[in-house]
Specification:
Length: about 425
């Protein structure tokens, strides 16, 4: 009976992972069909000039353990915006010592910019964003990350729009390292395939915490951000969808952000996203009530589980082969669907970048999602904004590699040579990935 369960799991997981890969191919091809005219079209604008001028916009940024230089550059960037009236509210969860260091480094702070330190750091980033709302009276709220940079006319463009909630295009600035260049390419791909094309298809758009705007009245209606959520932007997007509030993706308003410098930084970031996605499994399943569109939304919110889904089932199956004794024809049959979808993805999309970053992303998704499902303790690590030439090894991948090596040895004791060879090859690949 247990053999049949694992055989079914191999094919089910193979289907879902392949389905998500092929779905991204479809999204990408759809994005290529969108004309430049469609990309730059800003519908539902406010036509009344006086009404536009009266809209007060507040920009809210939550910070913790950020370099003081990053905060000064943020303030310099946001202080030059060509729009009135607007305010910037920066909420710090830093220690008093680091907060004072930031204030001293910044020097003169413009009158329309507030920097506030929270005494009680409950609720993680979402808690800080909710705290900022106590100091805000803007009609429209824009949420940015500390490393986000915008052009001078950013708020003028935002004021032209009349949507309940808005997601903007992210673009990576100044990619230097191989990891950053891969990340920059993937960000462009995501914006085109998972945002621009899904917007055209009328699917559910989920906000990005680095570049998101929402009407104050709408945010108040759904109860603000959820304190403690790891993926606070995704969680908010699910509640917006469940309350029939549409997020509009606007492709021609760009937020310039930074990418992780190395694979350790990338691993920590993807692991956090995957952990947050796992926390939201039950709430995202509620989207299924919207039928096919809701199913697609559920798949999107759980993508960090779907990427490595087949891999984890395959590794478990190979590790337990001395007990399961599943025919290798079934294992290879399930693997063939994955190989087909990856080949098709490569031929039609022709992805660029460092293969190590792709492997790191898959493994971080696997480890982070499992940690989230098991509700293991999570320590939030801020992605560094400066290059650290010393790249540490990733403990989670080391542990996984060692577990697979032990599994290979156990299988060899039962003469499961094929499983042992595959497991030891994967184990060696994981351990070499650290160098």
């Amino acid at each position: 009976m247990i053999n049949e369960i694992f055989e079914a799991l191999l094919y089910i997981s193979s289907f879902f992972t392949s389905f998500w890969i092929l779905l991204q191919v479809f999204y990408f091809k759809t994005s290529l069909e969108i004309s430049i005219k469609e990309e730059n079209k800003l519908s539902e604008i406010i036509n009344n000039k006086e009404e536009k001028e009266k809209r007060k916009i507040d920009i809210i940024v939550a910070i913790k353990n950020e370099n003081e230089k990053v905060i000064k550059e943020l303030i310099d960037n946001l202080s030059r915006l060509d729009y009135e009236p607007y305010e910037v509210i920066i909420v710090s969860d830093d220690t008093e010592e680091h907060f004072n260091k930031i204030i001293q480094y910044i020097g003169n702070i413009p009158n329309n910019i507030k920097i506030i330190r929270r005494q009680n750091n409950e609720g993680r980033k979402a808690g800080a964003l909710n705290y900022a709302l106590n100091f805000s009276n803007g009609d429209l709220l824009v949420f940015l990350d500390a490393e986000a940079r915008v052009d001078k006319k950013f708020l003028r463009k935002v004021a032209e729009l009349n949507y309940d909630a808005i997601a903007f295009r992210l673009k990576i600035r100044e990619p230097i390292t191989p990891t950053q260049k891969t990340y920059a390419y993937m960000t462009e791909f995501v914006m085109d395939s998972l945002f621009k094309s899904r917007q055209k298809l009328g699917l559910i758009i989920f906000p990005n915490g680095s570049s998101f705007a929402v009407k104050r009245s709408v945010l108040d209606t759904i109860g603000g951000w959820k304190n403690g959520a790891i993926a606070e932007d995704l969680e908010l997007g699910i509640r917006l969808a469940l309350n029939n509030i549409r997020v509009k993706y606007v492709d021609d308003i760009i937020i310039y952000s930074l990418a992780p410098f190395n694979n350790v930084d990338l691993y920590n970031q993807i692991r956090r996203w995957a952990y947050g996605s796992a926390e939201l499994f039950i709430s995202s399943a509620k989207l299924l009530k919207f039928g096919l569109k809701g199913f697609e939304g559920f798949i999107y919110t759980q993508q960090w589980a779907i990427y490595p889904l087949y891999l984890i089932i395959l590794l478990i199956t190979l590790s337990l082969q001395f007990v399961l004794k599943i025919p290798y024809s079934i294992i290879l049959g399930s693997l063939s669907l994955i190989i087909f979808s990856i080949i098709l993805y490569g031929v039609l999309i022709r992805p660029k970048g460092d293969y190590r970053s792709a492997m790191i992303t898959t493994l971080a998704s696997l480890i982070g999602y499992v940690e989230g499902i098991l509700k293991m303790k999570f320590n939030w690590k801020v992605t560094p904004k400066e290059l650290d030439k010393k790249e540490e090894s990733i403990l989670g991948i080391k542990i996984l590699g060692l577990i697979l090596a032990v599994s290979a040895y156990v299988n060899s004791l039962f003469n499961n040579i094929f499983s042992s060879i595959l497991l030891i090859l994967i184990s060696i690949s994981l351990l070499l990935l650290q160098f």
